[in-house]
Amino acid sequence: MNLVAACLGLFGIAFAAATILPLQSEATLLGLIYTGKFSIPLLVAVASLGNTLGAVVNWWMGRQVERFRGRRWFPASDRALAKARAWYARYGRWTLLLSWLPLGGDALTVAAGVMREPLLSFVLFVAIAKTGRYVVLVLAALQVFG
């Protein structure tokens, strides 16, 4: 596998994993790292960029919530969205630091759109959270598996 194909595949999976699709990008990231063929910082950057941009899709859907709510593919149930809205109303943009969570993280990114969080601050907080998750994951994996 060449670098371009690896990066495009990782980006695509990380992007999709942050949206409505039930995917996990962590296994792909670790698999590419364990090949030993690619730069770890580059892979973390590609995964982080893809995952952050995927979250922007959720933010946009949140801004369009009244048009999309109730559709099967919408990433947050009414219950999850109500809970995320309550968290967001109480803690504001700081909740986006939890956007990396496998359960509820996507709902927080949708809630940020619903609550009209400005795109720039949204991207900043989500990028910190998602990049931090990948860095911790990689450091832990390297510590365990060398």
Describe the protein's architecture and organization.
This protein has 146 residues and is mainly alpha-helical. The chain has one domain. It is built from 7 helices and no strands. It has helices at residues 3-17, 26-35, 40-63, 65-68, 78-91, 105-114, 119-145. Helix 3 packs antiparallel against helix 7 (119-145). The protein is elongated and about 45 Å long. The relative contact order is 0.15. The model has no long low-confidence stretch (mean pLDDT 91).
List the helices and strands and how they pair.
Elements: H1 3-17, H2 26-35, H3 40-63, H4 65-68, H5 78-91, H6 105-114, H7 119-145
Helix pairs in contact: 1-2, 1-3, 3-6, 3-7, 5-6
Query: What is the approximate shape?
Result: elongated
What oligomeric state do the depicted chains represent? single chain
Label the structural class. mainly alpha
For the sheet with most strands, the description reads: none
Helix/strand order: HHHHHHH
Low-confidence segments? none
* Radius of gyration, in angstroms, nearest whole number: 16 Å
Strand content: under 5%
What is the count of helical runs? 7
The overall strand count is 0
Query: Residue share in helices?
Result: over 70%
Mean pLDDT: 91
Distance between the termini: 22 Å
What is the domain total for the residues?
Answer: 1
